[in-house]
Write a structure and sequence with these properties.
single chain; about 375 residues; alpha+beta; L,D-transpeptidase catalytic domain-like; eight-stranded mixed sheet; two-stranded antiparallel sheet; about 30% helix; rod-shaped
Length: about 375
Amino acid sequence: MGAKRATSGLKALSLAYLAGASAFGFTIALQQNQQWAVEAKKMAQIALPAARDAAEAANQNAVKPALAWAGATTHAIAELLNPPAPQRVAVAAPRKAAPPVLLARPVLAPPPALRPAIGETPQNPVAVSPPLAAAPPIASPGLTAPSIAPAPDASGPGPVELARVLGHLKVSLTREMYDNFDLFLYVSKADRGPWSQRMYVFQKQANGDLTMLYDWPVSTGRELDEIAPNGMGAPSITPQGYYEIDPDRMYRGYHSMQWDQPMPYAMFFTWEHEGLQTGLAIHGASGADIALLGKRSSAGCVRLAPQNAQLLFRLIRADFKGLAPRFAYDRRTATMSNDGLLMHDKAGNLQYAEGYKVLVFIENNGGDNIVAALF
């Protein structure tokens, strides 16, 4: 469209030039012939308005568009031949990323290597823990004996067997156990032998010696797979091992919902097994179960005569509170060690917790044939 207008403008300019030249020649001719000049003047007066209108139309429709096109074309050609320098746009320099903050991951100590479980056929205790010499003097709290007489019992072992029990207990304790507990409850869950179905209570003296305080008949688990009164399967097994008394679970009166039985003076253990807090405890027998003491007859707990359970309950609470070592905990199985392995920090220091300095050791050993009890 622009090119077409430019061509028309050029043609108009050419015609204007020719007209101007003709007018110039015509003007010279009029000067030489006055009569022509008079007639021309008349004709000019008649044609002047029309010529003026024609010139204005040519200016608006041809000359101005042609000049505008020529100017735009010239500017475009000049830009092609001499392109303007590109303008630089100020761009903010990218901010340096802050160095990543490295969060220190807690270094978890690998789970302690557990000793082989004691199981129903314990290892030779002498091979695991060599006999201990008398421990150095350790301050022991003064014993405030409860004013409760133990239940009469004439069926206990004689002095020779009691000495054997004491010797066996010593070789079954590690140095850390011996040094950090003050009361030791040795329970034989065996169904036969001179030591069977009894609890032997030993107190550590200030000079490190162990003195037997009590020797009581007990009833441990029936060792059967049974159905509890609540309809759930529940083996009546008393597991062997080393245990501590749970300071948060000592009850003068307690009733087992699972077995629907009273558990007076219940002293539960701290033992956790596969993520669950177990119901293993020492408590008093009741009703017809009292006559069964000395035989396997419980659902898994260690039963005592009611007055003996009360005496032990009061003795522990009165004289054996303090910091006690914690048993190792295996995070892989969510189970607390019951084979005597204690918890240590990375530096090898024992870890303690508020509780009772009482160690319970349950073993399937009747004392009649120690070698046979090891297999």
